[in-house]
Write a structure and sequence with these properties.
The complex is a heterodimer of chains A (205) and B (138). Chain A has 205 residues and is mostly helical. Chain A folds into 2 domains: 24-109, Rna Polymerase Sigma Factor, Chain: A; 133-205, Orthogonal Bundle (Arc Repressor Mutant, subunit A), CATH 1.10.10. Chain A is built from 8 helices and no strands. Chain A has helices at 2-14, 20-51, 54-72, 80-108, 135-153, 156-167, 172-179, 183-201. In chain A, helix 5 (135-153) crosses helix 8. Chain A is globular. Chain B is an all-alpha fold and 138 residues long. Chain B has a domain at 1-57. Chain B has 5 helices and no strands. Chain B has helices at residues 2-26, 30-57, 59-80, 87-105, 114-134. Classes of the chains: A mainly alpha (205), B mainly alpha (138). The interface between A and B is large, with 44 and 36 residues.
């Protein structure tokens, strides 16, 4: 009898609850999933405004999600937001740079077709499920199209500063962290962006 | 005066643009939302897989280190005796083994010498063998 009691006691230790690290990883994955679900739509729209193409925007957002989860998932969750948007902005910039290089290369080729990125955009593409029976919604969409067009005219850094501060609600320090520049630069970029937008949209808004 | 008029206009621009942006986010079509959800799951899955791969990549180091450690512990245990914590089980086992040994080794007081008993049995087996060989096959 004492022999079985000893064996049982030993097995009870082996058959204990799951080790703590696995539970911690699961909890972290849930938290990361929740964070990404909260920001993914805004991130997509910001990328879409900068890139104009929804497929490219989706690729950049997914890439940013993957890099955040893979490289920074173990960091404190408070750091995720500026890190994610920094990755996202870098992805947008890389894609724009590649487009510029491709456009230059295409102009050197004889008989090259026009870059599809330069094709006139169908206004219906950027209308988000607008119902004809909702004139207010239609007006909102038109105003948003004008805003997007004006934002695209801005230099990239000014656009980033405006979108991060105004759309995402970052303060100056968070914006500087996400953009990888000084707080003074953020203030300058933002001020210039607001000035330009006001000049372009002031009369029609 | 100019600053006072500019500031409300700036605030108005900020608020209106923010509201429009949020409205466009809320109005995203279901197909795009679905694609974003799938992209999120794919990113989390890929990150999890890469984490497992990184863990698997360290296995050879773990196994070699664990093997050396296990060999050292086993050698220590064999050399210096029973490791602490296993005394209960080991003493129970050893007690059981000793009891079995006692049963096997013990001799009945009424059966006389063990060698004498063995001699009797040899004679019995010899008789049984001869009886079997002389018996006609059925």
């Amino acid at each position: 009898m004492p022999r079985f009691a000893t064996l049982n006691a030993t097995w009870m230790v082996w058959d204990g609850p799951a080790p703590a690290p696995e539970g911690a990883v699961l909890e972290q994955t849930r938290e990361l999933d929740k964070f990404l679900a909260e920001i993914e739509r805004r991130a997509f729209r910001m990328a879409q405004i900068a890139l104009r193409d929804p497929d490219d925007a989706l690729d950049v957002v997914q890439d940013a999600m993957l890099k955040l989860a893979r490289n920074y998932g173990s960091r404190p969750s408070a750091e995720w937001r500026p890190l994610f948007f920094r990755i996202l902005q870098n992805g947008v910039r890389d894609l724009q740079r590649r487009r510029t290089v491709r456009k230059r290369f295409m102009t050197w080729l004889p008989g090259a077709k026009e870059d599809p990125d330069n094709e006139a955009q169908d206004p219906l593409d950027s209308v988000a499920d607008a119902s004809p029976s909702a004139p207010e919604r239609l007006m909102q969409d038109q105003a948003m199209q004008k805003l997007e067009a004006s934002l695209r005219e801005l230099p990239a850094r000014q656009r980033e500063a405006f979108m991060l501060r105004n759309f995402e609600g970052f303060d100056v320090a968070e914006t500087a962290s996400a953009m990888g520049c000084s707080e003074g630069s953020v203030k300058t970029h933002y001020s210039r962006a607001v000035h330009t937008l006001r000049e372009q949209l002031g009369e029609v808004w | 005066m100019i600053e006072r008029t500019l500031e409300p206009r700036q605030r108005e621009l900020e608020e209106r643009s923010r509201a429009l942006f949020q409205s466009s986010v809320d109005g995203l079509d279901m197909a795009t939302r679905s694609r974003l959800t799938r992209a999120r799951y794919a990113a989390l899955e890929a990150a999890g897989t890469s984490g497992r791969r990184a863990w698997l990549a360290r296995i050879p180091i773990w196994t070699s280190a664990a093997g050396v450690t296990a060999a050292a512990v086993l050698g220590f245990a064999l050399w210096f005796g029973t490791p602490a914590g296993h005394h209960g089980m080991m003493s129970a086992d050893s007690q059981m083994n000793l009891e079995d040994l006692d049963i096997v080794a013990s001799s009945d007081e009424n059966s006389g010498d063990a060698m004498e008993m063995l001699q009797d049995e040899i004679e019995f087996y010899d008789w049984a063998d001869k009886a079997a060989s002389t018996e006609p096959a059925a």
